[in-house]
Amino acid sequence: MYSKVHSIGITGVEGVPILVEADVSDGLPGFSMVGYLSSQVREAQDRVRTALKNSGFRLPAKKVTINLSPADIRKEGTAFDLPIAISMLSASGHIKSSALEDCVISGELGLDGRIKPVHGALSITAAARKDGKSVCFLPRENVQEGLVIEGINIIGVSKLKELVDELNFPGAQQKGEMPGDWRQAESCSYEVDFSEIGGMPLLRRATEVAVAGMHNILYIGPAGTGKSMLANRIPTIMPSLSLEETIEISKIYSVSGLLSPEMPLMARRPFRSPHHTISPQALSGGGRIPKPGEISLASGGVLFLDEFPEFQKSTIEILRQPLEEGKITISRVHGSYEFPANFMLAASMNPCACGFYPDRTKCRCTEQQVYKYLSRISKPLLDRIDICVESRMITYEELEQKEGGESSASIRSRIEAARKIQAKRFKGQKIYFNSSMRKGELERFCILEKSDREFLKQIYESQRLSARGYEKLLKISRTIADLEGSCEIRRAHLAEAAGLRSLEGKYWGGIYGQS
Which residue ranges does the record assign to the Mg chelatase-related protein C-terminal domain (predicted)? Predict the structure, then answer.
C-alpha cells in the first residue's frame, strides 16, 4: 500500500513543506530511503524500525520504500523520524490515510518510541499554517513554541502510540493552550540603566542618535572610560519589539535551539557580545549543516564587538556585506542558506596598543605602531560605521558625582517618537530606519535649503568624505531632525552629524587620506 505524510524541513530559518511517501509492497524484505538525504535522515530507518517494534507494532516482512520530496531540497536533522514512522504505519493499514490529509507531523523518535523535541518548531508551525494545514503534531516539549503561531491547532505528543491513537480517534489528545499573556511572561526590565551613568553627555547623545536611526556606532578612547558600559545599556533604550519582530527573531533562536520550553519567544531585543577570539564561521554562521552565527543571532538587536581591532581581520571583514544588505548568504555544495542580519553594530576600541594616543604625555607608541594598530580597521569597513565618538578619561569629580544621568525610559520615549516618524515616512516600503535609506529616499526625504547645501559641500570637501560617507552624513542628519520633531534638515543638524563623524578623520586621516 501507498501512504503520504506532510512534514516540514528547515532551510536557513524558514520552514519548507516536505512530503514523506511510503510504499509497503510484496517483494524481497528491505528498507530503502531516497530523496537527497543527509546522514542523520538516513539513520532514521534504524530508529524508526526499533521504535515501532518497542511501541507494539508488528510490521510484515515486506519491501519498504520511503521517499522525501521534493528531491532537489536536502533533508537535514532528525525531525523526519516521526513522519516516516507514521507513513509506514499508514501504508501497513494501522492508520487511515484520510486522517493524514490536513495535518503536519514533526518529531524525533527514541528507540523506546518516545518523541523527543526538535529545533525550529516555530518555523515548522509557521510553514505549516502557510501551507494551509489545520493541525500540527509536535513533541510535547515544543508545544508552547508552536502555539505562538495563530490559525493552526497544535497538539503535543510524547509517545508514538499516543500519536497513532489521536490519528485514529481524533480528540484523544488535548490541544495545546497558550497560557495567559506570553508577552508578559518575561519582564522587560533590565538590570542596568542609563541613569547609573553620570556625565559623558557626548557619548550619551551619540548613542541616542545611533539607536534612533539604527546607525552603526564606534566608541574610541582609553581603557576604563565607559565605552563598554554605554554599549551594554543600548538595549535598554531600544523600542519594544512588535509581534512581527518577536516572531522573526524567535525563529532564529528556535532553529539554533536557544529557546527555553518555558519561554517560547524572545521578549527582549538581542544583545550579542562575542569575544575577539571568535572564528569567522562562528560570527557569520555555517558548519556542515549551516546554522545562524552571531551576526544572525543579533538580528533585530545589537552586535557589540569590544576591542574591535583585536578581532582577526578576516573575521570582521565578513561584516561588510551583512551591514549593507541586512542578510548573509552561506553557500555549500548542496545548496545556499540565507540568514537575516538586520542588526545595529556597536564597537569599541582603544586608539593604540597602550590606549592613550593622541595624549603624548602618556602614550609611548611610535607613529608607525599607532598606524599599524588603527589600520586593522579597513577603510571599507570604516565607511560602514555611521558614528564615531571619542571617550575621555573620567575626572575624580565625575566619579564622586552622586546624581546619575537621564534614565533609559526617558531616552527611550524620544527614540520611540523618532521611530514612529520613520515608520510613517517609509510606510509601504521595504525599509524601516533612516540608516537603510537608498539614493531615492535620500533625494526625497533629505531636501536642503540652498545655504544648507553649500554648508554640506564645505563639510564634504573638508572631511574628504567618500560617496558612502556623504550619504551617511545625510542619514544621521535626518535622524537628528526626527529626534527634534523637525520636518526639515537644518544647518544645526548637519553640523552635529558632521561632528559625530569627524573623529574618523582625526584618527584615520593619515592612513586613509582624510583630513
Answer: 405-501
Q: Please report the pLDDT score of residue 185 as a whole number.
A: 42
- The model's pTM is 0.88
Predicted local distance difference test score (pLDDT) of residue 454: 93
Q: Are residues 154 and 231 in the same domain?
A: no
Q: What is the grid cell recorded at 167?
A: 490519528
Look at residue 373 and tell me if it is in a domain.
Answer: yes
Quick one: cell of 177? 493552550
Shared domain check, 115 and 228: no
CA distances from 493 to 5, 292, 470, 478 (A): 60, 38, 14, 8
- Domain span at 16: 2-168
Give the torsion through C-alpha atoms of 34, 36, 37, 39, to 10 deg.
110
Nearest Cα residue to 210 out of 509, 505, 472, 487: 472
Distances (CA, A) of 235 to 188, 240, 271, 454, 482: 10, 10, 7, 37, 20
**Residues 6+ away with beta carbon under 8 Å from 295:** 283, 284, 285, 303, 318, 319, 322, 328, 339, 341, 343
List the alpha helices (DSSP H) in 105-234.
Answer: 121-130, 143-146, 160-168, 201-213, 227-231
Identify the band that residue 70 occupies on the pLDDT scale cut at 50, 70 and 90: very high
Q: Give tens-digit pLDDT for 154-165.
A: 999 999 999 999
DSSP result, 295-356: HHHTTTSEEEESSGGGS-HHHHGGGHHHHHHSEEEEEETTEEEEEE---EEEEEE-SSSSS-
